[in-house]
Amino acid sequence: MIKTTIKNERLIAHKTECLVIFSTEEKNPSGKLAELDTKLNGIIKSSFKNKRFQGKLNQTILLNTKKPMQAEHLLLVGLGKSIEITADKLRQAAGTAAKFAEKSNLKTVSFFIPANDPANYISVALSESNESFAQTVVEGSLLSLHHFDEHKQLAKDKLSRLKKITLLTSLKSQVSSLRYSASKGQKITRAVLASRDLISQPSNIATPTYLADKAREFAKSFGMTCKVLATSDMKRLGMGALLGVAKGSEEPPVFIVLEHNGGTKNDPPVVIVGKGITFDTGGISLKPPASMDEMKMDMSGAAITLGTLSAAAALKIPLNIVGLVPASENMPSGRAIKPGDILTSMSGKTIEVLNTDAEGRLILADALTYAAKYKPKAVIDLATLTGAVIVALGHEAAAVLGNNNELILNLQKCGETTGERLWPLPIWPEHEKAIKSDIADLKNIASPGVGAGTITAGAFLKSFVGEIPWCHLDIAGTSWSSEEKPYTPKGATGFGVRLLTLFLEQEVKNNKNH
Ligand code: BES
Ligand code: ZN
Ligand code: ZN
């Protein structure tokens, strides 16, 4: 990952290829910018005046500087209207600036971090959301500069990439808090990038066994415990739904149990469950060929689970957190399950498999049953579960469904701050009825015509969680981006890691208040 350093110096005296200053949407430069402008003979003011720059969100202008300023260039980035500033807008602006610098072939870039005082509208917006300026800037810039290029023999542009980010403050008293927040931003970002890489990795490399190896690697790096259940363990536990999905594949399935024990011994854990289908062909209910390659990302929930646990462990969050990953391929073959087959899940409930492409809910059923053994205070599962969620919400939000409104609202709030939006969908008794089978306890798809594909999938999961506070995040629309966004390059987004990490941090605070 790119190096981040902190520097305490006067704005004008700081030597760098490019100095980034954030500006709100205004008619004229104000505050530090106005001060600087007098030293630069009004070039900033004239950019405002001739409307080349107005501080609109993610708007940029690169200005050449002159003595006495030591920076070679000044890059202004807009944050939008001051009363509408949010943590995520700052994160976007930082990403936009970093990406701009990279595309302009710059090797280093410095961000000016303003004083953290109550008169500073940006600090106020951030403190409400529990983030700090430096953390947000580090996240935005490092997230935007990520590349998945390990399979390129000669990534020519690799050499010309940005190498260092500096956070500049003119206040000595701010240095230690900047150091703390920057390091926090780095730890969280590292976890997001690790998740993105796992998601981007093709399925001939990222098999269930590979996911297990990665989980062991993360456990070792961050001091977590990791247990990997093999087929024989799954048989012993009666995980017939997971084993059923795995039947068509040559790759053995795994069930990963990753634990960060940051809390006290008997403190009930938060359990995070991630769908780990390393490739989803649909099975005998085969998917059409167009874009089938994208189904290598069907283990996004697993990647986000491993990433979140790593971030929590790196931040030493004082909670017990368990990550569960049922992992398998979904393949057609002579041994594969067929439409109409009946599986017996670990819970004892029987499932009529009417469509082998609705496999995610099958492997999650056994994982949710396993989760209950911990008597957890909450279970959150993440899954690229349904194409229907894209019809409902597009790529702008993940759906959140569950049996506990407080949990739903808390998660939604965290997502608002981190820029990972969640939008609720209901599960009504009619939906629960729609997945009852005539000849087994449940069927894995509702009858044609019922519609509400994301909800009936959620209703299916709900029947395996009982009374435990539970939420399900359908990330099928948000895990992969076909366009570049301010701090998200094309491809795997890592959606969920920052959101869940913030949620876990807030849990610690809520525990203290109770
Ligand atoms: N992995 C897919 C869902 C998916 C779709 C993820 C698009 C990412 C992008 C899931 O296993 C699936 O195939 N779901 C089916 C369910 C249907 C058979 C009820 C779907 O959405 O079509
Ligand atoms: Zn499927
Ligand atoms: Zn799937």
Q: What can you tell me about this protein's structure?
A:
The protein is built from 16 helices and 20 strands. It is α/β, with parallel strands linked by helices and 514 residues long. It folds into 2 domains: 3-171, 3-Layer(aba) Sandwich (Leucine Aminopeptidase, subunit E, domain 1), CATH 3.40.220; 192-513, Aminopeptidase. Strands 7, 8, 9, 10, 11, 14, 15, 16 and 18 form a 9-stranded mixed beta sheet that branches. The chain has a 6-stranded mixed beta sheet with strand order 1-6-5-2-4-3, with helices on both faces. The protein has a 3-stranded mixed beta sheet with strand order 12-13-17. Helix 3 (87-103) crosses helix 5 (133-144) and helix 9 (240-246) packs antiparallel against helix 11. The protein starts with a strand and ends with a helix. Residues 280, 282, 330, 357, 359 line the site of one zinc ion (ZN).
Characteristics of this structure?
single chain; 514 residues; alpha/beta; 2 domains; 6-stranded mixed sheet; 16 helices; binds ligand BES; binds zinc ion
In short:
Helix content is 37%, strand content 19%. It is built from 16 helices and 20 strands.
